[in-house]
Amino acid sequence: MSEATMTADVKTQDGQLEFLVKGDHHPQNGTLLGFWLYLMSDCLIFAALFATYGVLARSYAGGPTGMEVFDLSLVAINTSFLLLSSITYGFAMLQMQANRLKGTLFWLAITALLGAAFLGLELYEFYHLIHIGATPQTSGFLTAFFALVGTHGLHVLFGIVWLVTLLFQLKKHGLIPANKRRVFCLSMFWHFLDVVWVGVFTYVYLMGVLP
Amino acid sequence: MSEHTHDHDHHEAEGPHVSLKEYVIGFVLAVILTVIPFWLVMGNVFESSTTTALLILPFMVVQIVVHMVFFLHMNFHSEGGWNMLALIFTLVLVFITLAGSLWVMISLNNNMMPGMMG
């Protein structure tokens, strides 16, 4: 992920495509396609984690069950944070399309705040679980749960770090093509995380509390 | 150098064209598709867990498609179809991973002697 952006950096800062053979017909949206391929590989990581969770979902080893430890109202609030952040990112994209820097910055900042709220609530949930003794070491179910939801949370964390970096880049250089491309890539990343969360809240939380 | 950059600029009127309508439709659909499964589970609408589980899974699938279409702007034309091809390939792998793991492990559990089950 970071490597892809770094090479793109070098490319645009020089203003020259030194490594491209002239006349070579390269795909227009090479970066976007490449980033999409990265997301697809990320998808496979989550597939493995989902499969692990699916296998271990009922292996409580005498520990607490999903029904006992999951607080659905908390999950509902978290879901709405992430869903709202998806549409605020959409607003940022629209502002960027209209070449309005201030609006783009504003909506990206709102998106970052919603992402941070999501992460805060998730950390609170983890803290609460560990506090009541439902640690990853307790049972196969909890190991798989922390691995899956934790990996998603880490992605959101990196998404926020990227968002903040992008805010500074936009502030410094404005809506240059390189920045626009970055905003596009992050939009795919951000919406992709929301897609994964749809799987998480349905498969882990909603199905987890069913008796 | 500037010519190059300019040329590059022109090339990179890239990314999908997005519209407010698209995002709003996607958002409204996503909210509906989120609220219904939460209501089904939190409101204890059905007695049987299996019925509820079988009902909320399609909502998940539809919502994922909604996100893909309205937020990720997936279609058969972007990137000359390579986007979609990569997605379909990934979905096949995801299906094999999930269905295969669950099938193997559940059969394993069923075929173990009761005393050995953990």
Please characterize this protein's 3D structure.
The complex is a heterodimer of chains A (211) and B (118). Chain A has 211 residues and is mostly helical. Chain A has helices at residues 2-14, 30-56, 66-69, 72-97, 101-131, 140-173, 177-208. Chain A is elongated and about 55 Å long. The relative contact order of chain A is 0.16. Residues 1-10 of chain A have low confidence and may be disordered. Chain B is built from four helices and no strands. Residues 1-12 of chain B have low confidence and may be disordered. Chain B is mainly α and 118 residues long.
Can you tag this structure with a few keywords?
heterodimer, A: mainly alpha, Four Helix Bundle (Hemerythrin (Met), subunit A), 7 helices, 79% helix, elongated, disordered N terminus, B: 118 residues, 73% helix, flat
Draw up the topology in text:
The complex is a heterodimer of chains A (211) and B (118).
Chain A (H helix, E strand, L loop, with lengths): L1 H13 L15 H27 L9 H4 L2 H26 L3 H31 L8 H34 L3 H32 L3
Chain B lengths: L1 H10 L8 H23 L6 H23 L10 H30 L7
Helix pairs in contact in B: 2-3
